[in-house]
Specification:
The protein has 19 helices and no strands. It is mainly alpha-helical. Helix 10 crosses helix 11 and helix 12 runs antiparallel to helix 13.
Length: 386
């Protein structure tokens, strides 16, 4: 009797549980709210809280792609907070591959599964972004094109959803802008559909204004557009301000906020923000990694050096060089920081230490003409602010 009871229970769980796992959870407002709590925690670098929520979702829906996708978001932010460190890239790709595999199994049962199409599109989209961050452009274009294909399918299944417009918008904008900004890109992108800057901006803004899962990503891309591709302080400041208000503990947004103020010439505001980043790193706050602190110390060294405050310039440049990022090679900020320290020693009249720094720069990879500049300063000392 006990055997039959267990067998009946097993059949019940198998058939009814499987159906629950295969359902389109993104149409359930309660599930979306629950998942978004985890997403917001991950974006705010409260990883323990985020992982608890994501682990609960994975246990409840072990066949659904939501679990591994959401868990990979925490990994994504660890990657961004450790610029140049590729140690966990493979794990991230494996998790996104698992998302794709679960999505494929759902699509085999139901070709019109909105969740399967949406999560697979987001998974290949994030893989495309990581490959772009690593300058692996062919792989980035391949996955980017696949992401757009899934975005198109998602639009056909659920035209009322605003998240998928983000993928369209990013493709439309950059497929139009990049070949014009970098002519060599025309040859790499000849086989892809043409884009439209105006349509792309409209689509990304639609996700920013009405989306859910991809709203923060839309804000980030709108920031990038106003910071890198079409520099405009008001736009860049608005979108990075929105992200900082929503995610005040996100070190990546924090350092970008500081760099924005610095780039557009608001040096005192930038200095305050860079010091905040450095202080959070020193307190070992989650997400404020040595790689993030490198940027803060590097930019502070320049702000002090070019104002003639050589004591503070030396102090922050020295802190930069003492950081242990555990990266396999020295970062651009480390190399340029060493050059800055040499310039600072020159300005302070310590020629021997300045030469020592320049000689070290010559033994490191060339970054933004760092070797040429080191050679120039070996011949003619940096004189500082007159």
């Amino acid at each position: 009797m006990m055997y039959h009871t267990r067998r009946s229970l097993w059949f019940f769980l198998f058939f009814f549980g499987w159906n629950v796992q295969a359902q389109d959870l993104m149409k359930d407002s309660l599930f979306v709210q629950r998942a978004m709590r985890g997403v917001d925690a991950a974006y705010d670098m409260r990883f323990t809280e985020a992982d608890r929520i994501f682990s609960d979702i994975e246990r409840q829906y072990p066949q659904h792609p939501a679990g591994p996708f959401l868990k990979a978001l925490s990994r994504w932010w660890l990657i961004l907070a450790n610029v140049g460190d590729t140690a966990i890239d493979d794990v991230f790709h494996q998790e996104m591959t698992q998302v794709s595999q679960r999505s494929d199994r759902m699509l085999a049962r139901n070709p019109n599964s909105y969740d399967a199409v949406l999560f697979k599109g987001m998974a290949v989209g994030f893989r495309s972004r990581l490959y772009a961050n690593r300058s692996e452009w062919i792989k980035s274009f391949k996955y980017g094109k696949e992401a757009v294909d899934y975005v198109t399918r998602a639009a056909q299944i659920a035209p009322e959803n605003n998240d998928y417009y983000f993928g369209w918008g990013v493709y439309d904008y950059f497929a139009d802008i990049l070949p014009r900004k970098y002519p060599a890109m025309k040859y790499a992108m000849w086989f892809l559909p043409r884009g439209s800057r105006e349509r792309g901006l409209e689509e990304i803004k639609r996700t920013f204004n009405r989306g859910s899962f991809m709203r923060a990503e839309a804000a980030y891309y709108l920031f990038q557009i106003n910071y890198v591709y079409e520099p405009r302080y008001e736009g860049a400041n608005y979108y990075i301000g929105w992200l900082r208000t929503r995610y005040p503990n996100n070190a990546f947004y924090h350092i970008l906020h500081a760099r924005t103020e610095n780039y557009f010439g608001y040096s005192e505001r930038a200095k305050e923000l860079f010091h905040e980043v450095a202080a959070r790193h020193e307190r070992k706050q989650s997400g404020y990694t040595p790689a993030v602190a490198e940027q803060a110390y590097y930019y502070l060294s320049g702000l002090y050096l070019f104002k003639g405050d050589y004591g503070n310039a030396k102090g922050v440049a020295t802190k930069l060089l003492l950081l242990d990022t555990k990266a396999k090679k020295k970062s651009d900020f480390h190399i340029l920081g060493r050059l800055r320290l040499g310039m600072t020693y020159d300005a302070m009249g310590d020629r021997n230490k300045a030469k020592e720094m320049y000689q070290l720069v010559l033994r490191l990879p060339d970054v933004q003409r760092s070797r040429d500049r080191a050679k120039e300063f070996l011949q003619n000392p940096y004189r500082g602010i007159k």
